[in-house]
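Job type: complex structure
Entries:
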Amino acid sequence: MLDHEQVVVRTGRRSRLPVIVAVHSTALGPAAGGLRLWHYPDWRDGLTDALRLSAAMTAKFAVAGLPSGGGKAVVALPEGAVLEPERRGAVLEDVADTIESLGGTYTTGPDVGTGPDDMAVIGRTTPHVFCRPARLGGSGDSSPHTARGTLAALRAVGRRLYGTGRLDGRRLAVAGLGRVGAGLARLLAAEGAALTVTDVDPAKRRIGDELGADWAAPDEIHAADVDIVVPAALGSFLTRNGVAELRCRAVVGPANNQLATPDVADLLHRRGIVWVPDYVASAGGVIHAVSVEVHRLAAEEARARVDAIEDTVSELLHTAESRGRTPAQAADELARRRLDAASDPAGPSAA
Ligand code: PPY
């Protein structure tokens, strides 16, 4: 069964590339979610990604308590394809046309492979775009806020496991040094955490050196001897086999779609490893963008909403424990309750 409200797949008029927009749910409000410009073996893999990522956005907003729905856009690039600036512009205009044709049902934003400058290009065609550079009236790069929100989630887990939200002296392994991962690693290093880091791009080693971090191989970092593993790269970081090799007490990070299969959440729980659902830990970016651009909050108030991820995670961990649930189940149930309340003809109640 298709549980998405709308999925658009088009060949871009200019780029001839597959442009995919998945609107999972608008039950809580107009859908939002980033544009992923990434390589896939087949465009259908991009479609699968868009379907999963947009559903995660619905849950992300529901748990964050924001009146937005879940969507995602994917442009599936063939493996090895390199987009020169002109072609990139054509791709972005194709995406912008598709978004504009949806009339506000879906607003895009940055995701893997895109950033504020790309949002500026899209903004020339459609107003339905978040995170344009500040000089153009947008809220700018969302990645520092995603990093900050993940730090808040880490504090909640630290408090739960070690009785303090301070992370100095804790050992953390950060897998992925893209915009969010590197930003988060910097925040953690500044606080005095001992870091092990990696990235598929060996050039990122420089960042690790700068932070005094150990370097691990990308396919081994999950098994690092640390307190908390932080997935900050592409999805499916946690596989069934990988869970057996973990030596940490918690896995908390900003990457979307961390679990290769949903049952991995139960395996983690059985091993006594705390897993904070990715869509909870990674919500800082959208929380900031929507708070500033839709709700017109001042920077300080938007930051406070991002920091409130710490309370959300604390409550989820508490609920999970008191009801004998995994944090994943507790978060899914909270999202479900809020979505059901919004679709209830009697009107939303305080779910
Ligand atoms: C995500 O949180 O996964 C996103 O899609 C990023 C994002 C950030 C800001 C606005 C819209 C989407």
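Summary: The chain has 13 helices and twelve strands. The first strand starts at residue 6 and ends at 11.
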